[in-house]
Design goal:
single chain; Glutaredoxin; disordered N terminus
Length: about 160
């Protein structure tokens, strides 16, 4: 039985660590997102900005639970032009627009972002959160737990803004 527990522990810890593409300090990959306002966002567009990414989709209940808190973050930092709040969604543009007509979400929203999501979040667990610093490096990653703690995200953002 000890051998079974040992191998189970090794196997599950290996799978957990191999599920993330990136670690803190890694450079953000090249990407292109199409936003609902008609603009696009690329890696070059976020240089010298802190970016909070939330990967999600509209029919994901856990993805919708923290919208009020996330909107509060946007409000808290609305006077700063060095922060972007971006929500790449898996849904098509029409579905995102319909969602925005019914629900308030203040992040800039990208649509049909499966390709970018697969790079950032290869295990496809939602929601997933990433903060990228002004140098284009990951400073916070919450991907794959399904137990996102908003306070951890907020504290990570405050920490990176003080640096």
């Amino acid at each position: 039985m000890k051998h079974v527990v040992f191998w189970f522990t090794i196997l599950t810890s290996t799978l957990t660590f191999s599920q993330e593409n990136f670690t803190i300090g890694d450079e953000v990959p090249e990407f292109k997102l199409w936003l609902t306002d008609g603009s696009k966002l690329t890696k070059n567009d976020i240089l010298n900005k802190v970016v909070v990414f939330k990967f999600w989709f509209t029919s994901c209940l856990p993805c919708l639970l923290d919208l009020d808190e996330l909107n509060g973050l946007v409000d808290q930092y609305h006077n700063r032009n060095d922060i972007l709040f971006v929500a790449p969604a898996l849904d098509r543009k029409e579905i995102i627009k319909e969602f925005h007509n019914k629900s308030l979400f203040k992040f800039k929203t990208a649509y049909s972002a499966m390709d970018v999501s697969q790079v950032f979040n290869p295990i496809q667990v939602y929601p997933s959160y990433f903060i990228v610093d002004k140098n284009g490096k990951f400073s916070y990653i919450d991907s794959g737990t399904k137990k996102t703690e908003f306070l951890n995200l907020k504290n990570a953002l405050e920490k990176i803004l003080k640096e």
